Amino acid sequence: MYQVARKLFFTDCQCADDASKAYEDLFAKLDTNKDGKVDVSELKAGLAAMGIKTGKGAAQKIISSGDQDKDDGLDFNEFSKYLKEHEKKLRLTFKSLDKNNDGRVDFMEIKQSLADLGIDISKEEAQKILHSIDVDGTMTLDWNEWRQHFLFNPATNLQEIVRYWKHSTVLDIGDSLSIPDEFTEEEKTTGMWWKQLSAGAMAGAVSRTGTAPLDRMKVFMQVHSSKSNKISLVGGFKQMVKEGGAASLWRGNGINVLKIAPETAIKFMAYEQFKKLLSSEPGKVKIHERFMAGSLAGASAQTVIYPMEVMKTRLTLRKTGQYSGMFDCAKQILRKEGLKAFYKGYVPNLLGIIPYAGIDLAVYESLKNLWLSRYAKDTANPGILVLLGCGSLSSTCGQLASYPLALIRTRMQAQASLEGSEQMPMNLMVKKILQKEGFFGLYRGILPNFMKVIPAVSISYVVYENMRDRFGIQK
Fold first, then answer.
1. Which pTM was predicted?
2. How many CB atoms lie within 10 A of CB 276?
């Protein structure tokens, strides 16, 4: 039966009429109860009878994707439209794999294409992938073999690795130094990218608001805690509440949320431009090129919005009545300290991008490759727990590496507003901290910083998922 179906459907159609006829014949075979539509159970049973293997949940996904009138089944028009659209995507993916344009894909082309997506596999693994798709035993794939394997497996597509494994868009832990996520060509052409960025910005806003007390405690300990003035978590919170009430725990949160939108937009636009400038092969970005482009994009965004970072630190540390709001804070800084004050701590902030972004990317890519090589069978979708775990761990490692520079940046931003505080450059400040407090003096405030990672990641993911539903983003 399978060979009949293969001859019927998986041969090159020379014209649109042949394709329509093939679709009609296949639809008739699948529509076993002859009610004019194919539902999930009919699709599952029909494909199994033809010997066509499908991934877990593939039948449901096909019906959901093509079901325009939401009647839990596909009529012939919906069925043929789905197949035509899906075949176009498969053709594009096949062409991107076929590096030498000879109409066939070998294992080296598969290995190279996965490397372009940041996934390094061995020759043996590439040959294993090829062997699982190769029907005629030539150890190369032609278009028919590719179409045959993937037409009814909508979740088994190289670009889905890019789509599923986003973490800087989805997860917000309060810092914005990670490399921007990649978007598939389909997401860019359909405009889905801006919806995802908007959903991510909303998730970041709610996440930062939810963890603002811990963020304020981190900044408070970075600036005020020392060997001679030890501040505990409980003691610090009591001191804040006593000085300004419970609402004071959210000081500085307004501007912290406000800067998400311009920073995300600038970083994304700059990243796309730097990728074009740095990529050795048009349309393909290697992992080191992605790191350089992402770091430069982060530096560009930070340069533009850095005055807001300084204001955020000042507003976070302010005493009751010191500033009436954001604009008053900006006016006072400008009047008392001049324009240069808006870029205090800029150098350590810029230097912090390299270790944070580099380690975050390296750890995340390693965890992603490990999961894909061991557990990815029917889909590239890692599931919520794996995504949250990998994202949290990589971001935490990045923070750990760049934290001393973040502490120096915060102290330089704050020093002019502290009574009796000595104004000093970065190198002297590092020297003074090491002399008086030792190496661990560079990690003051690390505990509340780590404490906010899990709630921040959890909140941002839940909000992101809800915003995806509202924006109609495909899961």
1. 0.66
2. 12
